[in-house]
Design a protein that fits this description.
globular, mainly alpha
Length: 403
């Protein structure tokens, strides 16, 4: 069974209880998590996609109340973990219902349509619709701006169809209070046309990117490549990049760094990437002469990070997949130690392969010493065993095929 991953704030709290430590210093993190989750939940509870969706929302409120009572009391680690796992299980289900798109590809338009349909079916209110109009209007303005730059590339009939779609969408946004049903039809028709243009735009940008030597960065590669090209308004472009795309790259790297699993025999690559990000920021504040070197440094640091990390793909689909995910989750603080301890006890059985028994010993060392580096060694051993199991299965399949 795949493990359920928890927020690090809850894991740190559960681990403190498990070790018999005073968790009081960690409680502000727990309360901040429940407060933020409740705020996000209330923002989504102004309409419901189904009766089951409404029940899930009510259950989440109760579970958040229960978790807060535990944080204010003197729970055991098991009680805290059970409450956290129950909350996250329902929260994942509720979130997946709310984050998928139902009618059109563009999330802001789809969220508005979902609220409109829910309200027409008696599971929402006009307030739920109104509060989502500004995001839809912003998305429409962004598409109109892009279209104005690219309209000349289209035949007149295509240009007119897109303009009509935008106009229909705008009319729907403005007529919500007049007739919600009519407005919903207009928003859906206009959003479908806008989504078609957005798909074309994405495809066109992908084709353009293929023809350029893009920097090897996972976020912001195209605007960074354009910034490296000579232009008369470089300062303005650099400032815009620093205000927008640089933050997106940093956000991506922060999330990536927190989930990175460096191989135990390799140097931790994260400080080098942090340094390269700082170098890029300084280059953007300068005259541009240092930008190529900064981009190269970032490319090299990210490549080194990718080369030095362990990947779980080798264990996917095999019997060791949940073991590898649990160890990795414990290292990145998304799996509590009490779950890790149970896994170690299973791995340490006498009939386990030697590598797996060694991995169990490493996990025990991590739990006793509090040194998480042991988990990376344990994960490396489990992935080696997964590779051996897969190789053995492939060899057996080959033998059966030739027999």
């Amino acid at each position: 069974m795949k493990p359920i991953h928890l927020p690090p704030a809850l894991v740190r709290w559960i681990n403190a209880l498990d070790r018999g430590e005073d968790p009081s210093e960690l409680l502000p993190e727990v309360r901040a998590y429940t407060r933020d989750t409740r705020t996000a939940l209330e923002a989504q509870s102004d309409h419901f996609i189904s009766s089951e969706d409404a029940v899930d929302c009510d259950n989440l409120r109760l579970m958040l109340d229960g978790l807060e009572r535990l944080a204010d009391g003197d729970p055991t680690a098991t009680q805290a973990a059970d409450a956290a796992f129950a909350l996250i299980s329902i929260l994942r289900k509720f979130s997946s219902t709310r984050t998928r798109t139902y009618f059109v590809d563009i999330p802001a338009f789809d969220a508005l349509l979902v609220a409109m349909i829910a309200t027409l079916q008696g599971r929402g209110s006009l307030d739920a619709v109104r509060v989502r109009i500004p995001a839809a209007e912003a998305a429409l303005r962004a598409l109109e701006s892009d279209f104005s730059e690219e309209a000349a590339r289209h035949p007149e009939e295509i240009r007119q169809a897109v303009r009509n779609g935008f106009a229909t969408l705008q009319a729907g946004l403005q007529s919500v209070t007049d007739s919600l049903e009519s407005a919903a039809r207009q928003v859906k028709a206009g959003a479908e046309a806008a989504s078609a243009f957005a798909r074309w735009r994405s495809a066109a940008r992908a084709r353009a990117a293929e023809q350029m030597a893009l920097p090897r960065v996972p976020v912001g590669a195209l605007p960074l490549a354009m910034l490296l090209e000579p232009c008369t308004d470089w300062r303005a472009r650099a400032d815009l990049f620093a205000d927008t795309v640089l933050g997106q790259i940093q956000t991506w790297w922060d999330a990536r760094a927190s989930a990175l699993l460096p191989a135990p025999d390799r140097e931790d690559p994260r400080p080098a990437v942090d340094d390269a990000m700082q170098q890029l920021s300084l280059a953007l504040a300068g005259d541009g002469s240092e930008l190529p070197a900064a981009v190269t440094a970032l490319e090299e640091a990210l490549a080194a990070a990718q080369a030095s990390e362990m990947r779980l793909e080798g264990a996917l689909g095999g019997p060791l997949e949940p073991v590898a995910e649990t160890i990795a989750g414990a290292y990145t603080e998304s799996i509590p130690d009490l779950v890790l301890r149970e896994v170690a006890e299973v791995l340490a059985r006498p009939d386990s392969p030697p590598r797996i028994q060694e991995a169990a010993g490493c996990i025990q060392q991590a739990l006793v010493e509090g040194e998480r580096g042991w988990l990376l060694t344990a994960l490396a051993l489990v992935l080696q065993e997964a590779d051996a199991v897969r190789a053995g299965a492939e060899a057996l399949t080959g033998d059966l095929g030739t027999g």
